[in-house]
Specification:
- The protein is mainly alpha-helical and 88 residues long.
- The chain has one domain.
- 77% of the residues lie in helices and 0% in strands.
- It has 3 helices and no strands.
- Helix 1 crosses helix 2 and helix 1 crosses helix 3.
- The longest helix is centred in the C-terminal third of the chain and has 25 residues.
- It is globular.
């Protein structure tokens, strides 16, 4: 993987993670690096599920794929927030 690929993954992860945090109600006390990590994992999972469902490649913006990614990010943020909050 090239440097541009890694930077792209971090930027996409940040965006997807931030959208996941916006969806989850209340305050999440998790660090930004964990939000990015959750976003990257959610983006990969969302793309995989969209591919399996056959909706990953559409004309224009892939709204279903984006929605799946944000849902996975929201689930990840919720789990991480609960786990991270208990550990402190």
């Amino acid at each position: 993987m090239e440097v541009t690929g890694i930077l792209s993954a971090i930027i996409i992860g940040l965006i997807i993670g931030a959208l996941g945090r916006l969806v989850v109600p209340g305050r999440q006390s998790i660090p930004i690096w964990l939000t990015v990590l959750i976003g990257v994992v959610a983006a990969v999972l969302g793309t995989f599920v969209a591919t399996v469902l056959g909706v990953a490649e559409t004309r224009g913006i892939d709204w279903i794929e984006l929605a799946l990614q944000v849902i996975f990010a929201a689930i990840g943020v919720s789990i991480a927030s609960n786990a991270y909050g208990r550990g402190r």
